[in-house]
Amino acid sequence: MSALRNIWIVFKRELKAQFNSMLAYVFVVIFVVLSMALTFWFRNFFDPNAQDASLEFSYFMWPAWLLMFLAPAVGMRLWSEEHRTGTIELLLTMPVATWHAIVGKFLAGLAVITIAVAASFPIVITVAYLGDPDNGTVWGGYLATFFYGAACLAITCAVSALTRSVVACLIISVTICFVLLLIAVPPVQDYFSDVLGGGASEAISSFSMFSHYNEMKRGVVSLPNLVFYLSMVGFCLFATSVVIKSKRA
């Protein structure tokens, strides 16, 4: 119970800091506006000749690209700001285990991402009104977006623990997320297939968050996809713990 209480205290502190700095509001607005705009302008959402009532190709192709930039923007302050202001020493001298602080901060950032994703739900109502969507792909798409955002945030959390610079954390995190997305893009896969062979190309693609995202947004919420994202989040949070403890020592 004390662990949950400590996590809850850190969670509330970090979530309040996110909204006090206006960062959370900006993130939610940008995510919702851009995802809707890209859907309506570039995917012919209201095309009367469209045969697909699913959101798989009209809406859920955009959140992965947006979260590649926006999730690091949410997580870049998690530890970098603590290092820069010197408050990390105060935080770590409190009767709170390191992993309590890490989980609490991560969940606060994830809460902001979840609010942004949930705020786009009116588009589901619109599709339900205009047609008969496949609810499996709708919920699979939202679940894929949630896990993809959690993975990007976990990567940022680990990078944030390594540097005092918020800008450096943002650039490095976006680069890592972009690489993990890029290796599953068809032209890149074709290049690896030509150079390394089909088996090596598939192996490299299996490490991409984007490939698992694409499967889940089609409604294929399989155990390997869930294990991949949970493993990535767990590994990054563990790496964060190792870095924080090394600096604490």
Low-confidence stretches are: none
Overall pLDDT score? 82
DSSP strand count: 0
Determine the fraction of residues in helical runs and give it as a percent range. Answer: over 70%
- Total discrete domains: 1
Taking all Cα atoms into account, the compactness measure Rg is: 19 Å
What fraction strand?
A: under 5%
The rough form would be described as globular
Distance between the termini: 27 Å
List the total number of helices: 13
Order of helices and strands: HHHHHHHHHHHHH
Structural class: mainly alpha
Q: Sheet bearing the most strands, described?
A: none
Task: Describe the protein.
The chain is mainly alpha-helical. The protein has one domain. 77% of the residues lie in helices and 0% in strands. It is built from 13 helices and no strands. It is globular, with a radius of gyration of 19 Å. The mean pLDDT is 82.
